[in-house]
Amino acid sequence: MGVLLRTNLIFFLACFCGLVFGNPNRCDEVRKVFQLRQIGPNQLLPLSPRQGSDLQVCMSKNQTCCTKKMEERYQVAARRDIQNLLQTSSSSLKFLISRNVAAFQETFEVLMRQAENYTNTVLQDSYGNMADQAMGPVRELFTDISLFLLGSELNVDDLVQRFFDSLFPLVYNHLINPGLSDISSGYAECVRSSSRDVRPFGGAPSLLADQIARSGVSGKLLLQALHLGIEVINTTDHLQLSRECRRALLKMHYCPHCQGLTQSKPCMGYCLNVMRGCLASMAEIDTHWREFVRSLEGLSARMHGPHDLEQVLLGVHTLLHDAIGHAQKNGPRLSAQVHKLCGPPNRRPTQADSIQHSSNKEFTPLKALVRVSGDSLAVKRRDFLNSLRLYRTYYGGLADQLCVSELASSDGHSCWNGTDIVKRSP
Ligand SMILES: *[C@@H]1O[C@H](CO)[C@@H](O)[C@H](O)[C@H]1NC(C)=O
Ligand SMILES: *[C@@H]1O[C@H](CO)[C@@H](O)[C@H](O)[C@H]1NC(C)=O
Ligand SMILES: *[C@@H]1O[C@H](CO)[C@@H](O)[C@H](O)[C@H]1NC(C)=O
Ligand SMILES: *[C@@H]1O[C@H](CO)[C@@H](O)[C@H](O)[C@H]1NC(C)=O
């Protein structure tokens, strides 16, 4: 009799609980989601709702489908969810920056090749007999400039002066004091080392060095700034969340599951509260980030005229043409000075084909060739900054943006307020 009564009572209680929990067992739904999102092994779930006195965050007067072990798993999952969300959210910004770093570098390389080509072409056209021999030093000059612009600690004055030094023997041999045969290599070496005293190219070397240094500094800063930008995004992608934040995320995302409410979303105000707290360190980045975008704009605005790398590089051939012209005009004086320093020209034995007379054709600057497409650095820079400007408030508005677009319940639906599901009156 007693046994029967007890059995009935248990049966009755089981039915009653089932009723309160809606479906025969709410934990089935919880189990499904637990499995689907790979939150942890299914054995962690209780078979039916229980009292959750051991829970630390998802406490409730109601019965629960959670255990303490599940809470731990939920906490890990909540953190993972947010980090995925942050990465997804910043990926377009990261892509924008890294794509532009790549594009700038590519444009820059094309620009370098073009500038070298113009320089060789002008030498070919105007000073044909020395053009082939000048190609080596020209190549070296542009290689050095590239290295400098990409970050090497090269001294611009030195690299430019080295170029003009090696140009002087060629100019001497072919234009200033042409003879029946080339000067000997020893004599060429003396001419080269006299270059700093004789200054055959006037102010051209220091002018070029100055232009490269000025325009290059802005270009270098721009690239450095872009790398810095990627680093900032990298750091925030891997943001460390505080203990309080992790608990708050658990409560917001997964505590409803413990009550079988797997579909519920947090209320907007609640979400904003939690997310602003978790992303407080990002809000600190906000000021710096805005400053970063503003300084890129300032940097870019300063990059024109003699500060525009593109103009400087594509003007090297003109500057060089003028510099050689200057030396030619002062030929007699230079010749005398070299004679004083190096003695009379020492020439190689005559070879039939070693003599070519200079044919100074009329020089036409290659300006017309310069603007070939809209791919110039300046255009790229402007487009990039226009896109980046849209992200100026990215960090300050991130918490709000995530709640509005992803996390929180939209207006008019019921939502989870941290302890209960509340119905919104429309
Ligand atoms: C410059 O480039 C053009 C077109 O690519 C090429 O035909 C020419 O040979 C190059 N000139 C020199 C001097 O490298
Ligand atoms: C950013 O992170 C990615 C992957 O985590 C790494 O490959 C890249 O080098 C990082 N970039 C910077 C600038 O730190
Ligand atoms: C807890 O149970 C009460 C009734 O016992 C119910 O009204 C309430 O909505 C439940 N809370 C949750 C979060 O399920
Ligand atoms: C959530 O809603 C319930 C019921 O409306 C209320 O009693 C409780 O104070 C609310 N909790 C918070 C944190 O707002």
Automatic annotation (TrEMBL):
It comes from the Eukaryota. Belongs to the glypican family. InterPro entries: Glypican, Glypican_CS. The keyword Cell membrane applies. The keyword Isomerase does not apply. This is Glypican-5a. Residues 1-22 form the signal peptide. One of its GO terms (cellular component) is plasma membrane. It is a lipid-anchor; GPI-anchor. Cell surface proteoglycan. Keywords: Cell membrane, Glycoprotein, GPI-anchor, Heparan sulfate, Lipoprotein, Membrane, Proteoglycan, Signal. It is found in: Cell membrane. One of its GO terms (biological process) is regulation of protein localization to membrane. It comes from Scomber scombrus (Atlantic mackerel).
